[in-house]
Design a protein that fits this description.
By secondary structure, the protein is an alpha+beta fold. It contains twelve helices and four strands, in the order βαββααβααααααααα. Helix 6 packs antiparallel against helix 7, helix 6 crosses helix 9 and helix 6 packs across helix 11.
Length: 315
């Protein structure tokens, strides 16, 4: 269940209440007249089943409540109410499968921001991966994938393509390009430093010494298939109410390790291996974007059909 808290101008409150009452899956409607001061107006609160939340929020935005008042949405972790149970039963579909598009846009917008923290995580993840590729250590590779924040901008790009939001798309692309560029530049310097103190050397970078990580610079169709699967899994994780954090999703792909391998290879003038790593990176990003966008389009189509069926049943 979701809890909505609205501030509505007094002349729009009746329309908001009618919208809530006619939306299947709503309950616990409360109206507090003249309680809001900034902005001034009424306070309207209700609970809504997650699967009906996107429809209700869309209707509220059509009434202009997001401009003239405010719309706040919170997840309800526990609701002990027969009315809430009935509202969830009446709402179409399953709450775990529902996509709240406004929440998705807001989340991916934040994750796609090129900030100092984002760049720091990218740099740290790439340096950890550099140690992993040189030592041929799969544990370090997995750790770097978990630290890397690059799925946020990728998810933002997928969302922007589906929602036709060019500003979000540009923001996500800038975060991806700048993040990887900064991480690779710093990792080249890091590799030179590690070489100067005797911890890295070009012998460790040779294919014969790296049976566990040589896939990072040798892209093939299998790499693309894995990227597609990971992109779909990551998008479902982002939109599903029951999924956990995205930390483990990117373990299946090699974006950060590929960037790290390219940087280390460049530091030793191993241009062939660096180019192969760059191809692996671009291939995985392409696969994730294609799968993520396709997943969001499928979810959008599914819920549109679900609402049509519900409307026909209620007619």
């Amino acid at each position: 269940m979701l809890h909505l808290r609205l501030i509505t101008p007094s002349d729009t409150t009746d329309g908001v209440v009618r919208l809530i009452e006619k939306t299947t899956g709503t309950t616990h409607l409360v109206v507090l007249p003249n309680c809001a001061h900034n902005p001034s107006g009424d306070v309207v609160m209700c609970d809504v089943a997650r699967e009906a939340g996107d429809e209700l929020i869309g209707g509220l935005r059509k009434l202009g409540i997001d401009r003239s008042g405010s719309i706040s949405v919170e997840n309800i972790d526990l609701s002990l109410s027969l009315r809430a149970d009935k509202a969830e039963e009446e709402a179409p579909g399953e709450g775990a499968d529902a996509v709240l598009w406004e929440q998705l846009v807001e989340a991916t917008h934040e994750e796609s921001t090129l900030s100092a923290t984002y760049v720091a995580f990218m740099v740290l993840a790439t340096m950890i991966a550099a140690c992993g590729v040189v030592l041929d250590n799969a544990i370090l590779i997995v750790g770097a994938m978990a630290v890397g924040p690059d799925f946020g901008p990728v998810a933002g790009l997928c969302t922007a393509l589906v929602r036709r939001a060019p500003r979000l798309a540009v923001r996500a692309v800038i975060a991806l390009l700048a993040g990887f560029a900064a991480a690779m530049v710093v990792t080249v310097a890091f590799s030179w430093f590690m070489d100067s103190v005797g911890l890295f050397n070009d012998t460790l970078l040779q294919p014969g010494h790296r049976p566990n990580t040589n896939f990072i610079y040798a892209p093939d169709w299998f790499s693309f298939v894995v990227a597609l699967l990971a992109g779909a899994a990551g998008t479902l994780s982002l939109t599903s109410a029951k999924s956990g954090a995205l930390v483990g999703v990117a373990i299946s792909v090699t974006t950060v390790p590929a960037a790290a391998n390219a940087a280390v290879a460049l530091s030793y003038s191993e241009y062939g291996q660096a180019w192969g790593s760059a191809e692996q990176l671009l291939l995985n990003l392409l696969g994730i974007v294609l799968a993520g966008t396709s997943t969001l389009l499928a979810q959008k189509f599914f819920w549109a059909k679900q609402r049509e069926r519900t409307a026909k049943q209620q007619a």
